[in-house]
Write a structure and sequence with these properties.
The complex is a heterodimer of chains A (471) and B (358). Chain A has 471 residues and is an all-alpha fold. Chain A has helices at 3-16, 22-31, 33-41, 54-59, 69-82, 86-98, 103-106, 109-122, 127-135, 138-143, 157-164, 175-184, 229-238, 241-254, 272-284, 289-298, 300-303, 315-326, 336-345, 368-382, 388-398, 405-415, 423-434, 445-463; strands at 188-190, 206-208, 218-220, 223-225. Helices cover 55% and strands 3% of the residues of chain A. Chain B has helices at residues 9-12, 298-306, 308-316, 321-324, and strands spanning 30-32, 35-43, 52-57, 63-67, 78-81, 87-91, 104-109, 114-119, 124-129, 144-148, 161-166, 172-176, 181-185, 191-196, 211-213, 219-223, 228-232, 238-242, 244-245, 251-252, 255-260, 266-270, 275-279, 285-289, 329-334, 339-344, 349-357. Classes of the chains: A mainly alpha (471), B mainly beta (358).
């Protein structure tokens, strides 16, 4: 099997999922790149089962109706680690980045979970549906105060963020458009909710109150009419800034790190042609995200080696890819909460973004404290020869017979990615391996353990390399 | 006045599941073939229980409720509580040390007042003295006596004990979800027999959960993964399947527990569909209970008396149905007075029904 095919598939799986071990990569390469893209894009049509959560809820019923932040994050982390449909979770993570809603204000882990369920369910559908569903999503309504947006006292929070963060970006609308947008969404609110203090949480409900809706004429982005919220979304989607804004988000999340979103007005895209292609696909497909991702994953700009390892793994990506590689916690068991909380320690409290702008990504994920935490987390697990995924790597290397120091380093880099490290880094890894000479698998149990430990130590060293932090 | 916002059909359905058209929307007595089932009352709320999973009754009709808590540093342990919600005390706690639990699943109390608690993570049965003076307090592990059980799949070992029950001889039948079997032990842990094994044919199990015995010591097992309850002789010989896999009233999806009353009527917690199914001794379906906790428990009433803001919020709510229905019921028990106790796991309460012959 050609190594370049494995490397390309590994790139796809890092971006469209959370990485894959060598067994999975080989299976997918045998199936073909385009076939794998199709399977990722539409798992239902390809017979990939949904994650069965019954056993999980039997073991930990608190995940069924999350009542606290630990269960809320834990449930999503379990899905990240164990889903057979990784792109569904990845796309939910993308929309959570963009439509960043936080439990710190919503204060309902159940509503937060239902919002993520929504992203998972419709995340590869059309963007119009996405915006409409978000407009009537109780967590979003409460998060951006649309329940306080009344006919006689408009609140502009939702209207402003819909334009600035969720569709067009700064510079394409006026303050007057914001006010008119807000007026159109008056009456889009949530019904009275059952307090969760007595018998756990209950879902909130979207309610449309026609008596509280401002049904008078509005002028929005140059069009005039008695617009309701749905009309506003249609006008937004007609504006040329919208497909470009969504396209740039898709590029930033799946292809290569861009500058931070607030700079997009001033900084041109890293790859303008790619943005053009994606924006045109969005328009021609009726804003169909699945169709746009199909173009993206099959494009030259995605496959090109110049964008491989050009994204800093988010804390969630780093944690989940580590857990999937090591195949730890495939079954729920005590100790899982430490894993679920790890992205938060590394700077990404999922379901609790710092603000409605979400997280700053790329190199802003890294500071001295976060880097140390990231390395230690990965090293502790990938350097543990008792974990199934690490044992698989050891087993594969052991089949090669005696390994020279160079072969040990290259073998570990290959099976962790393949990862290509800077020549200086590779030299240091080889120098370390040379201190103990060639590596023999041996015949005795003690020799096998010693073999596994040396491999694990090399894997651990690689997790501290710059390249391991990149996707 | 509320009205629907005009949305296309493709987006009209929100994330909340539509109401089940098969469910009754009002509370009334259910009369069926010489029996009448009525809702009685509710015990507990989030201040009393935390993800309760199972209960049993002692000879004085005192309830012992096992709380699963969550996988964190805290757990509620076991409540000793009266049918009228008078809290007698609590015991147990989170941890691996003696008298504590990681994943407690079920409890049985013998005629001497000794409680046997199964833990499906630690693979052990812990024994407590329930006759000690509680004085309404949480005594944690101070009434712990001893434990037994070794994890494994050999006969006499335990593989994730999911539930247990005492027979008339006060021996213990234990479901092992990890080993897909039922094993019988003396109260001191001496192995007596085992039956079952993985599979879906009669007599085999897929992650069995709840268990009970009838007055003849026949054994009933909630065969969770196979969506059925199976009935066996005391020696483990297969007798009968009760309930069939499917969706809707009378059908089972992931049954979690089973109880049998003195008439032989069988009550099954249909965990996967948030209901309790009732069958007669022949396995003929009688009725379905969906949860009817329309009135708050005494502790719930007290809470609202002290928290006016929440009371005001509740006064604005127009649809209370989600609150009074079961969500993931995990335990069912009956007492000699015809009361039926349903452990309403996600709702932190026990709903009590009453059966009368008509």
């Amino acid at each position: 099997m050609a190594n370049k095919d494995i490397a390309l598939m590994a790139h796809l799986m890092r971006r469209a999922g959370f990485g894959a071990d060598r067994d999975e990569l080989e299976r997918r390469v045998a199936k073909g790149y385009e076939a794998t893209v199709e399977e990722l894009l539409d798992p239902e049509a390809h017979g990939i089962p949904e994650l069965d959560t019954d056993e999980l809820f039997r073991m930990t019923p608190g995940f069924k109706v999350p009542a606290n932040p630990e269960n809320m994050s834990g449930y999503w982390m379990y899905r990240f680690i164990n889903t057979p449909r990784p792109l569904e979770e990845k796309i939910a993570l993308l929309w959570h980045h963009i439509f960043a809603t936080g439990n710190a204000k919503v204060a309902s882990p159940l509503e937060m979970t239902l919002q993520i369920d929504l992203f998972r369910d419709i995340g590869m559908g059309d963007y119009r549906t996405m915006l409409l569903e978000l407009s009537r999503n109780p967590a979003m309504i409460f998060w951006l105060d649309n329940n306080e947006n009344h006919k006689d006292a408009p609140n502009e929070n939702w209207g402003r963020e819909l334009l600035e963060l969720f569709s067009m970006g700064q510079g394409h609308y006026t303050e007057e458009d914001v006010k008119e947008c807000a007026r159109a969404f008056t009456g889009w609110t949530i019904g009275p909710t059952l307090p969760g203090v007595l018998y756990n949480r209950f879902p909130w409900e979207f309610k449309y109150d026609p008596d509280d809706h401002d049904d008078t004429e509005k002028t929005f982005l140059g069009e005039t009419g008695r617009f309701n919220g749905e009309d506003i979304i249609d006008i937004i989607l007609k504006h040329p800034a919208t497909p470009r804004f969504v396209a740039r988000h898709l590029y930033n999340f799946f292809v290569a790190d861009e500058v931070q979103v607030p700079s997009w007005l001033d900084e041109p895209p890293r790859d303008p042609e790619a943005i053009d292609t994606l924006a045109e696909t969005l328009v021609s497909s009726g804003y169909n995200i699945r169709e746009t991702l199909r173009v993206l994953f099959n494009s030259d700009f995605f496959k090109d080696e110049s964008v491989w390892f050009e994204k800093v793994k988010s804390p969630t990506e780093l944690v989940v890819s580590t857990m999937r590689l090591t195949q730890d916690f495939k079954d729920y068991r005590p100790g899982f909460f430490e894993i679920a909380m790890e992205p938060s320690i590394q700077g990404q409290a999922i379901l609790n973004p710092p603000s409605v702008e979400g997280w700053h990504t790329g190199h802003e994920w890294i500071d001295s404290g976060a880097l140390l935490q990231r390395i230690n987390f990965a090293a502790d697990r990938i350097g543990d020869p008792n974990l199934p995924g690490v044992q698989n790597i050891v087993e594969r290397l052991s089949r090669q017979g005696t390994l020279s120091p160079t072969e040990l380093v290259d073998g570990c880099l290959d099976l962790l990615g393949p990862i290509t490290v800077a020549e200086g880094t590779r030299s240091q890894l080889v120098a370390h391996a040379e201190t103990e000479g060639d590596l023999h698998r041996g015949e005795t149990e003690e020799e096998h353990v010693a073999f596994a430990n040396r491999v694990a130590t090399m894997l651990k060293l690689i997790t501290s390399c710059r390249e391991f932090q990149m996707a | 006045m509320w009205g629907p916002v005009p949305l296309p059909a493709s987006v009209a359905a929100g994330p909340n599941p539509p109401a089940n058209p098969n469910r009754r929307t009002t509370l009334e007595a259910i009369a069926v073939r010489g029996r009448e089932f009525t809702y009685s009352h509710t015990i507990g709320n989030a201040a009393v229980f935390n993800y309760p999973v199972h209960l049993c009754l002692d000879s004085d009709n005192i309830l012992y409720v096992v709380n699963r808590g969550h996988d964190g540093e805290w757990i509620f342990g076991i409540n000793k509580i009266a049918v009228d919600e008078t809290e007698i005390g609590k015991f147990g706690g989170y941890g691996e040390s003696e008298g504590r639990f990681i994943w407690p699943t079920a409890i049985a109390v013998d005629s001497h007042g000794l409680a046997y608690v199964a833990d499906e993570w630690l693979n052990r049965i812990s024994i407590f003295d329930t006759t000690v003076e509680f004085n309404g307090a949480d005594i944690e592990e101070k009434n712990f006596l001893r434990k037994w059980g070794v994890g494994g799949s050999e006969p006499g070992q335990l593989g994730a004990p999911a539930s247990l029950v005492l027979d008339s001889n006060e021996d213990l039948y234990i479901t092992e979800q990890g080993n897909n079997r039922v094993s019988k032990f003396t109260r001191n842990g001496d192995f007596l027999l085992t039956f079952g094994g993985p599979g879906s044919s009669p007599g085999r199990f897929d992650k069995p959960w709840g268990i009970t015995v009838d007055r003849y010591d026949n054994v009933y097992v909630a065969d969770w993964g196979n969506n059925r309850v199976q009935k066996f002789t005391p020696e483990g010989e297969f007798l009968q399947t009760i309930g069939e896999s499917g969706r809707g009233p009378g059908k089972l999806h992931r049954p979690s527990d089973v109880a049998v009353d003195s008439d032989g009527d069988v009550y099954i917690c249909d965990w996967g569909q948030d209901k309790v199914e009732v069958y007669d001794a022949d396995g003929s379906h009688l009725t379905t209970l969906y949860g009817d906790s329309k009135e708050l428990s005494p502790r719930g009433v007290k809470y609202l008396e002290l928290n006016i803001a929440d009371l005001e919020k509740r006064r604005m709510v127009t649809n209370f149905e989600p609150e009074y229905r079961f969500t993931l019921p995990t335990g069912v028990e009956v007492d000699p007075q015809g009361r039926i106790y349903v452990v309403d796991n996600i709702r932190f309460r026990v709903q009590v029904y009453r059966k009368e012959k008509t």
